[in-house]
Write a structure and sequence with these properties.
alpha/beta; 4-stranded parallel sheet; about 500 residues; homodimer; about 10% strand; about 50% helix
């Protein structure tokens, strides 16, 4: 039992901690003198929050449920800095779960919207139509709003389109209960955003909100559900993708600092062979027509409930040649089940990134393959908490991925449904709640840079994207230094 | 982007999962034919519980708070098997937090016990004394019990000595609130168990309960607080250790299948240099007098609140020569703070095992050193949940330690305070809640064997211990096979 001298202890201690610091996500970056100034401001503010949280853990925002932490986060100076920060890309989120709830409520002010069912006590159906729809007892939303008063009516509308509830922790007993409400929400929303005029505006407003939140690139998953208009026309996958591209071009022309957006076709995983075959055909048609916009393929829906990836493996490996895949896998806290073993399948099926990968840390061979194959994990902190995988951000497994420089990005999944900003709240939880106290601007810059590197942007696009991000980054540094003089 | 054929996919998938299985804790063991029979029974019952839990996660005991899961666990057939299983050693638990609450309440029936303060609305003080104590308004417990009726009085007494509360999740806001109640509980209990006659009986009854729960060896931490008797005598460290040894010898003589018990002297970490010096002197005196009973040194008390190990390093490395240490470290979900960096200190200060090590998985160099130096982590699942480190056992970091064969034991910390059996509840949560679905009898057998290997038993004692454990294990196998015929 030989022990070091105190001097050697101090030296070995410093050496081990320094080695860990060197392995931490972002530690390979060198900060410029100006970045170092901003880093000192950032570290000062982060440290204040940690000291306060350490003394009174119950008041620490990342130890609370997200819905109870919203006001704390809003008041945080670290959050203010993160809002301004050019974070570059959101690489994991879903088509109709992007826009802020207020904008959704505003859409319900559009003419010709009908409602069937009681907004106050049930989940009603909606439809845009010139005439009163035939089946069921439909009334005009405008009339109802008049009748109940806009304040009361809009509050009910608002609560329909968010998972937010002050008593959410008690209200949703488990992941299945939460997913059931989550699916209900998507279903109620579909006929509103599925109205073709709104669909386009939804995407335009989304790009706007994301860009305002420091997001210059949006790589999102979608189902391309059938859309409709007032004249009885139906719009299918190719039409919808065309609309996205049209809106995107408009937005890019208006916002030269914005880099772009790409689409991962991600229909429901609850599919048999015939349906899966149609998915692949749709993908090929989309890719042929919009080669720059279409980025890859995925499947969506609660992973635990059924249809593991291995069931699609045969079909995929025979018919999926040349289709890039970016699979959800391991969005679960079960261990040794099909859901977490999806991680192995996703890797072997050639996934470029992994959506969530919450269970990856329990699989040593998966961890090794992530590094060996340079597969990036799309971490969605707030989603994982709201959808009942983890209670306290400090226990989020991404802490382990950060600690040893795994390829990761931080993303937001469905920010619309939990009152989150497009990306800043997830960055906040990752930075203050999940990462080490020692994580600083290098960590955040690395997350931004990873979202360039692991995006589906081509090499040329990545170069252009990096240039635009660097411009925004330089401006951000000046802004923070300036704002700090006035007390942030 | 070359992808495997489906046949190669299937082969690679099996190979990766097989490699993970080979790295899992216990996978190096070979089961005998009889063990294989028991394993099939065990796997069958575990699988039934997992299938049920997977379908309805809110009903899954390891997804609930321990206090809400007690009835589920009691009804579990896996738990019934675990109760019978010879688990060999408890290597992490604390002197006055071992015995079941019913036995504590029974102690309050002893003659000459006085109470000061209202049992129903406050935390009262207790004292054994022939005469009425001078300070304050003391009354006899026997008279009070008579007055209020034993049922009501004992219920209040019971709730004083347990953290159990049906609303515990809401009641205790954070780890600090829980620890404050926890410390209050120790303080209320001290003058009861500190009465010299009860102290000895407490230890005797503890050995009995542990042995009945399949524990043949108890390596526990204690403060050796001053004891008293009715004649005004005080008993100090050496006297108390002598009592332990006396009781232990008696118990061993009566129970030849029991292996033994050793003691880790673990006074409070809230200590300055002078106090620490006294700790080391006390340790040396104890070790000189009871060389076989005294196993090592540690410090106790909530780690987050202050006094990190590095503060004792200089003193320890100069004056601690030859003293084995078994330090608490990293019992926290903070990251990058003194508390989790205690892990680095514990390792460099020469710790034989690590108490809790909850934060170890966030420290890649710590993980490497654990393997390199063969330092065993003492995992205490139920304690970590009740004391507010983790909510859902499926997110317990030990899942990662199990997945890659780190040196670990499962222990129970303070089973007295949360209505747990001496070790079986912790084994249940580790086996059903934390470990992979694939973990089976090999995993459990390995935990038992690790508790021999990483104990402070000498080589000779380990040999004798292994023999006694093997006898109990063989009997257990027959018992399970027999019981299964009658439906467990």
């Amino acid at each position: 039992m030989s022990r070091p001298s105190y001097e050697n202890f101090v030296a070995e201690r410093e050496s081990i901690l320094a080695e860990e610091a060197k392995r931490y996500l972002g530690s390979d970056l060198e900060l410029s003198p100006k970045e170092k100034v901003v880093n000192e401001i950032l570290k000062r503010e982060k440290n204040l929050e940690l000291v306060k949280g350490f003394a009174d853990p119950g008041s620490f925002a990342p130890a609370k449920h997200f819905f109870d932490a919203l006001d704390d986060v809003k008041a945080s100076k670290v959050f203010k800095i993160l809002r301004k920060m050019p974070k570059f890309g959101v690489l994991h989120c879903h088509d109709t779960a992007l826009l802020s709830t207020d904008k959704i409520v505003a859409f319900t002010y559009r003419a010709n919207l009908w409602i069937c069912g009681d907004l106050f006590t049930s989940v009603p159906r909606f439809l845009f139509s010139r005439e009163k729809p035939a089946d069921g007892s439909w009334v005009k939303v405008a009339d109802e709003r008049e009748k109940f008063g806009a304040t009361r009516y809009d509050a009910a509308m608002r609560s329909l389109f968010t998972l937010y509830a002050p008593d959410a922790v008690q209200k949703y007993r488990d992941i299945n209960a939460m997913w059931s409400k989550f699916m209900e929400l998507f279903a109620a929303l579909d006929p509103i955003v599925g109205y073709v005029e709104i669909w386009k505006d939804y995407y335009y407003e989304t790009l706007k909100e994301f860009y305002e939140d420091g997001v210059q690139y949006l790589e999102f998953r979608g189902l391309l559900p059938e859309l409709y208009d007032l004249d009885g026309n139906k719009y299918e996958a190719l039409d919808i993708a065309g609309m996205y591209v049209e809106v995107l071009e408009k937005f890019k022309a208006e916002n030269p600092g914005f880099v772009g957006s790409k689409f991962i076709y991600a229909p429901l995983r609850f599919a048999d062979n015939a349906v899966f075959e149609r998915y692949l055909q749709t993908y090929r048609a989309l890719k042929a027509k919009f080669p720059d916009f279409i980025a890859g393929f995925d499947l969506v829906g609660q992973e635990d409930t059924a249809f593991p990836l291995k069931g699609f493996a045969d079909h995929w490996l025979k018919d999926g040649h040349g289709i890039p895949c970016i699979f959800h896998a391991g969005e679960t806290n079960w261990n040794g089940m099909d859901t977490d073993e999806n991680l192995v399948d996703a890797i072997l099926l050639g996934t470029k990134r992994i959506g969530h990968g919450f269970a990856a840390v329990k699989h040593p061979r998966v961890l090794e393959e992530l590094k060996k194959r340079d597969i990036c994990v799309e971490v969605n902190p707030v989603s994982n908490q709201v959808l009942k995988l983890v209670d306290d951000y400090r226990n989020h497994p991404a802490a382990i991925l950060f600690s040893d420089n795994y390829p990761v990005v931080v993303s937001s999944d469905d920010p619309s449904f939990w009152e989150a900003t497009p990306l800043s709240h997830d960055f906040y939880m990752a930075f203050v709640g999940i990462a080490s106290k020692h994580a600083d601007l290098k960590f955040l810059k690395k997350l931004a840079m990873n979202s360039i590197k692991y995006s589906s942007l081509s090499d040329t696009e990545q170069k252009e994207g990096t240039k635009k991000w660097q411009e925004a980054w330089d401006k951000f540094l000046d802004d923070v230094i300036e704002a700090d003089k006035k007390g942030l």
